[in-house]
């Protein structure tokens, strides 16, 4: 599959499956199994995997375009896809002894959804410092952990899980494992009823004495942190930026439709014809949205041709995208007035969904900490 095919398949799924159901799924906080059932056969679950395991070997450019296209219709489904892609990249980068070949083939064949289970109740948004520690049990390890948020909880076929290495000495000496959903001791610990992203089942999960064989260890002991930073973070930050862009584009489009259709009958004009102030606010939304698109294109370019500034751009992109998404959707709420406030339009869902990006780790505040330190030459950890 090439780039254009991937994006056009994503567009078809967005138009035919996601958009018609987004409102009701949001209302009911219902996970869109239909979205996953469509993404699999379309070949989109394995687009970045190598062709040897059945993937399409596409790069960050295609990933970002697919995520943005999905997010324009339903940011929850785009987030499910994004977490799957981050987990998949981690599985694909597994150490040589890990037994993941069949999982990668299943992902490429569209039969397997994965996700990340990093955040823990004890260390909150500091996902790089798990509280849980793997305990040796012969050649296996046992994992017991309280994972505070796991997108696609109860719906994924596997979970990429972090824990401190059995003999790790520092707070970031973690190891990553892959656990099948059928692993005894692994369970969803509660419902998901968020302000936004309500259709992505980001529920807490419990691991209780989960027995893990050596082949399911994805990284060397203590090398989980490196994989989080080098494999997950750039892709996650690009993907969350792409979700933000999709939300902004949907907000601009929805606002334009409203300004072109809602009328002041007594003046014989649409809102957009009548009020320059609304046109100016729409213009600001458009400027910010295109600015974010340019920022994402720049990050894609950095990821395609890595250089000294690549990590800085990845940090900046997510920090900026979270703020832009909140600003653009907030303006849309105001411009569309009572019609948006009273939930007659999709704008209020976009506004709620837009608030997730800045609190998802690394949060906007933490990113600013990292960026400030990086600019000053201070070590991040
Ligand atoms: C919709 C959604 C889906 C999610 N999906 C997943 C998932 O699939 N897998 C997963 O592992 N996690 C997931 N998370 C968890 C997410 O990545 C964060 O861990 C979580 O949102 C942090 O919330 P908290 O209340 O624990 O934050 P806290 O750590 O309590 O942060 C509270 C506030 O303090 C600020 N803060 C914290 N540390 C610093 C610092 N060093 N400097 C400055 N400010 C700081 C934060 O920015 C925030 O404003 C998800 C979260 C959401 C909202």
Describe the structure.
With 381 residues, the protein is α+β, with helices and mostly antiparallel strands. It has three domains: 3-108, Butyryl-Coa Dehydrogenase, subunit A, domain 1; 114-222, Butyryl-CoA Dehydrogenase, subunit A, domain 2 (Beta Barrel); 225-376, Up-down Bundle (Butyryl-CoA Dehydrogenase, subunit A, domain 3), CATH 1.20.140.10. Helices cover 52% and strands 13% of the residues. The strands form three sheets. It has a four-stranded antiparallel β-sheet with strand order 2-3-7-6, with no helix packed on it. A hairpin with a 2-residue loop joins strand 2 and strand 3. It starts with a helix and ends in a 5-residue tail after the last helix. Bound molecules: flavin-adenine dinucleotide. Flavin-adenine dinucleotide (FAD) binds next to strand 1, strand 3, helix 12 and helix 13.
Task: Describe the structure concisely.
The chain has 381 residues and is of the alpha+beta class.
Computed structural class: alpha+beta
Helix and strand succession? HHHHHEEEEEEEHEEHHHHHHH
- Overall tally of structural domains: 3
Distance between the termini: 40 Å
User: Could you tell me the radius of gyration in angstroms?
Assistant: 21 Å
Bound molecules: flavin-adenine dinucleotide
**What is the CATH architecture term of the largest domain?**
Up-down Bundle
CATH topology descriptor of the largest domain: Butyryl-CoA Dehydrogenase, subunit A, domain 3
Top CATH class of the largest domain: Mainly Alpha
Biggest pleated sheet = 4 strands, antiparallel
Q: Write the CATH homologous superfamily of the largest domain.
A: Butyryl-CoA Dehydrogenase, subunit A, domain 3
Structure annotation, total helices = 13
- Point out poorly predicted stretches: none
């Amino acid at each position: 599959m090439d780039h254009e095919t991937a994006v056009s398949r994503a567009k078809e799924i967005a138009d035919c499956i996601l958009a018609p159901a987004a409102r009701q799924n949001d209302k009911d906080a219902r996970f869109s199994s239909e979205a996953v059932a469509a993404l699999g056969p379309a070949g989109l679950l394995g687009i970045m995997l190598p062709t040897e395991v059945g993937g399409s070997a596409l790069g960050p450019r295609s990933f970002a375009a697919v995520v943005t296209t999905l997010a324009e219709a339903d940011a929850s489904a785009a987030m499910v896809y994004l977490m799957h892609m981050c987990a998949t990249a981690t599985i694909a980068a597994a150490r040589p002894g890990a037994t993941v070949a069949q999982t990668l083939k299943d992902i490429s064949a569209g039969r397997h959804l994965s996700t990340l289970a990093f955040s823990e109740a004890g260390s909150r948004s500091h996902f790089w410092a798990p509280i849980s520690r793997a305990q040796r049990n012969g050649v296996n390890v046992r994992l017991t952990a309280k994972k505070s948020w796991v997108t696609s909880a109860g719906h994924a076929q596997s979970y990429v899980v972090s824990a401190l290495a059995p003999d790790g000495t520092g707070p970031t000496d973690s190891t990553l494992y892959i656990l099948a959903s059928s692993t005894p001791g692994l369970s969803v610990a509660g419902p998901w009823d968020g302000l936004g992203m309500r259709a992505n089942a980001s529920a807490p999960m419990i691991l209780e004495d989960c027995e893990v064989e050596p082949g399911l260890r994805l990284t060397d002991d203590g090398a989980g942190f490196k994989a989080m930073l080098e494999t997950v973070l750039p892709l996650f930050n690009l993907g969350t930026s792409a979700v933000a862009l999709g939300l902004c584009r949907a907000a601009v489009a929805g606002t334009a439709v409203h300004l072109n259709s809602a009328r002041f009958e007594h003046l014989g004009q649409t809102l957009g014809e009548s009020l320059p102030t609304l046109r100016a606010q729409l213009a600001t939304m458009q400027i910010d949205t295109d600015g974010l698109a340019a920022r994402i294109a720049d990050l894609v370019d950095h990821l395609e041709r890595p250089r000294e500034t690549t990590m800085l751009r990845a940090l900046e992109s997510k920090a900026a995208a979270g703020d832009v998404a909140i600003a653009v959707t907030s303006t849309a709420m105001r411009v569309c007035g009572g019609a948006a406030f009273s939930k007659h339009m999709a704008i209020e869902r976009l506004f709620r969904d837009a608030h997730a990006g800045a609190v998802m780790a690394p949060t906007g505040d933490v990113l600013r900490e990292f960026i400030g330190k990086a600019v000053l030459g201070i070590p991040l950890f």
